[in-house]
Design goal:
This protein has helices at about 10-25, 45-60, 70-85, 100-110, 120-125, 145-155, 175-185, 200-210, 245-250, 265-280; strands at about 5, 30-35, 65-70, 90, 130-135, 140, 165-170, 190-195, 210-215, 235, 255. It has about 290 residues and is α/β, with parallel strands linked by helices. The longest helix is centred in the first third of the chain and has 17 residues, at about 10-25.
C-alpha cells in the first residue's frame, strides 16, 4: 500500500488565497485584534501570534496586537475590544495558564467577533449543524478553527470518505476534540472520542477499528502505537510534538500528516476565514425615518 501525505500547507494556501481575494474586495477591511497573556511565560503562544502576524501582513489584514500581564488587564482588554467598532475579530491564545478558566474567558469574547469559534453561542450553532447566522445575507456561522482545519483538509481528498466512516478522535478538548467530533458526526461519520481517562486497552480497541484516526494529545510522552492503525486508515496528527511515528505508518496508513506539514497552517487559514465571516456579520443598516426603501 502506498501512503499519501496530506498536504496541509498546500490546502491552506488555497484558503489563504480566498481570504486575500475577499479582503481585497471589501470596502471596509477586516481588522484583527490579538490578545496574548503573559508572553514571556508562553513562548509557544508568542510564536503562534508571530505566525498570525506574518500571515496577516501577506493578506493585507491590519492587526492590533495586545498583551496583558494580569487577569484584570486581560478582562479589561476583552471588554474594550468587544466594544471597539473598528475591531472585526478578536483572538486570544489558549491555554491562558492563569487563575481564570479558559472556557469562561471564551464566553466573554463577543460571539460576533469570535474568530476562534469558542463562544458558547457559536458552539451551539455547531451542535445544531446551523451553517448560517443569516442565510439571506450569506453570513456563515463561525466554528472552531483547528477542528475546521482537520475537516477541510480531509475534504480536500475525495478518496477519504467521511460519510459512513468510523472515526476515533484522541482528544476531548474544547478547541479540538469536542467540536471535531460534532463536525464529523454532522458529515455522517460515527465518532468515538478518547482522552486521558480512557483505559489503554479500550483506546487500542477503538483505534484498531477506525477508518480515520485524529490525535491531538499535548503530552510529549504520548505516542500512539503504529501497530494499532488499521491498514488503509487515514491518520491526522494535530499535536505539536507528534503523537505518531510517521515512518512506522508508511505502507500501513492510506493518508498521513507528515511531521513537517501538519495542521498548523490550515488552522491559521481557517482563523482568517472566520475573520472574514465576522467582518461580514455586522447589523444591516436600518433606513432612517422618512427614507424610502
Amino acid at each position: 500500500m502506498t501512503t499519501r501525505a496530506l498536504d496541509c500547507r498546500g490546502t491552506a494556501a488555497r484558503y489563504f488565497d480566498w481570504v486575500a481575494r475577499e479582503v481585497a474586495g471589501m470596502r471596509k477591511k477586516p481588522r484583527l485584534a490579538t490578545v496574548l497573556f503573559r508572553p514571556k511565560q508562553n513562548p509557544a503562544s508568542l510564536q503562534y501570534r508571530d505566525l498570525m502576524l506574518r500571515d496577516a501582513a501577506r493578506l493585507g489584514v491590519p492587526v492590533d496586537g495586545h498583551e496583558a500581564e494580569d487577569e484584570e488587564s486581560l478582562l479589561a482588554l476583552v471588554r474594550r475590544l468587544n466594544a471597539d467598532r473598528s475591531t472585526s475579530g478578536l483572538m486570544l491564545f489558549y491555554p491562558l495558564a492563569c487563575a481564570l478558566k479558559d472556557e469562561d474567558v471564551m464566553d466573554l469574547v463577543s460571539a460576533a467577533k469570535d474568530v476562534e469559534g469558542l463562544n458558547s453561542t457559536n458552539l451551539g450553532y455547531l451542535i445544531k449543524y446551523k451553517r448560517f447566522v443569516d442565510e439571506a445575507r450569506g453570513i456563515k456561522c463561525v466554528v472552531p478553527a483547528t477542528a475546521k482545519a482537520v475537516v477541510k483538509t480531509l475534504q480536500a481528498y475525495p478518496e477519504i470518505p467521511l460519510e459512513g466512516a468510523f472515526a476515533v478522535v484522541v482528544n476531548n478538548s474544547m478547541r479540538v476534540g469536542k467540536p471535531l467530533g460534532l463536525m464529523l458526526e454532522n458529515l455522517g461519520a460515527t465518532v468515538v472520542k478518547c482522552y486521558d481517562k480512557t483505559p489503554k486497552a479500550l483506546l487500542e480497541e477503538q483505534v484498531r477499528r477506525a477508518d480515520l484516526v485524529v490525535t491531538a494529545v499535548p503530552d510529549p510522552s504520548f505516542k500512539l502505537d503504529a501497530s494499532w492503525i488499521k491498514p488503509g486508515a487515514a491518520v491526522v496528527d494535530v499535536s505539536y510534538q507528534g503523537n505518531v511515528d510517521a515512518k512506522a505508518l508508511e505502507g500501513r496508513a492510506s493518508f498521513l500528516t507528515a511531521p513537517d506539514n501538519r495542521i498548523g497552517a490550515m488552522t491559521r487559514a481557517m482563523t482568517f476565514v472566520n475573520l472574514v465571516y465576522c467582518a461580514r456579520n455586522v447589523p444591516a443598516r436600518r433606513p432612517r425615518a422618512g427614507s424610502v426603501g
